[in-house]
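DM between two lab members

TW: hey, do you still have the Dephospho-CoA kinase entry open?
JB: yeah, one sec
JB: this one, 226 aa:
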Amino acid sequence: MSTQSNRPNGGNGGERVRGKIIGLTGGIGTGKSTVSQMLRDLGAFVVDADVWARRVVEPGSDGLRAIVEAFGDEVLQPDGTLDRKRLGAIVFQDEDMRLKLNQIVHPRVQQGMWQETADYWQQHPGEPVVWDVPLLIEGTAKRFVDEIVVVYASPTTQLRRVMERDGLSEEEAMRRIRAQMPIDEKRAIATHIIENDGPLEFTREQVQALWQKLRTENRSGHSSSR
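TW: and the structure you got?
JB:
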């Protein structure tokens, strides 16, 4: 899955020095954030979509201006920052509004991620980069990645973790899980799978083995087949 022809404009000439982009994703309660931190600890350069989603709507940004134009001043807090709770209440009740928000935010997030990636490649030519994207498979970012890593936990484990973590009832937790693509569907699309139902040390061993594999392939110039 090549990213070069799909790459947005900008990015400091990253195409001349690009390496693989490894998409990291999962589902609520699967432990994607844990795996992302493990990769960082191993030295991986991780570009976080959630970080960019906050950056592109900071006060004074054209992203925030576009949101206000589309949704009105009521989505701003008194200090001029985005009222995420109010905006969420609007978009989760109206599919058209949710799509409108995505059309504003997603291209800006992806452009920022590309810029950060290309800047890294200028200093570290050809090195693999991990894109941490919660909705990688559901959204448009998947067309930019070369391989997909899915952090997997069984639906039963997801339910238990979400209930414990967020203090939710079973019904509330199931509602959040069902709002996402089923984790088994994501698993079927993955290039690599990190099983995260068991002990943390087992997860860490898989992450270490995967990162070593990716680094070895990078040095040899060999691309794993999907």
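TW: got it. Residues 1-5, 9-14, 222-226 have pLDDT under 50 and may be disordered. The two ends are 9 Å apart (CA to CA).
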